[in-house]
């Protein structure tokens, strides 16, 4: 189901499930992150539900809370939107350090971005290079996360937003995973369910 027109990343709350038909295959990205084949196979068959809510922490900073249900015992994570590093432990990815923020207009270009990475993360191209674009938002904002696992040697840069695909508005997350000279890109598309 399409996401409500009034929903933006600044007020992102609801329940979402992956739309596997519209999403890119993320197996190669998960492999680059060191996820074992048997677990990747299970992920490809699973139908998790992502429950998102927003809150503020004790310092008044906005937080996106993520609960993943329907896979094992489930997990809960938070994206603290102040661009400060937050250490965590994820059952799938191990020890991570995450920085998250909302940003306006185009993503800042970093020295790690190839032309393809930059176009992909900014929503102007799909994984195969065909044109795409973020849906226009009243807030003009997207959400950026950089998640790193120093022990495993990978970094994932992720951008959340909304896109119009086949005439419907979907919540999407675009990721670029880097490990050494290896790079994998993928877009996850989510159906809004409640």
UniProtKB/TrEMBL annotation:
Taxonomy, superkingdom: Eukaryota
Name of this chain's protein: Pyridoxamine 5'-phosphate oxidase-domain-containing protein
Biological source species: Aspergillus pseudoustus
Listed InterPro entries: Pericyclase_pydY-like
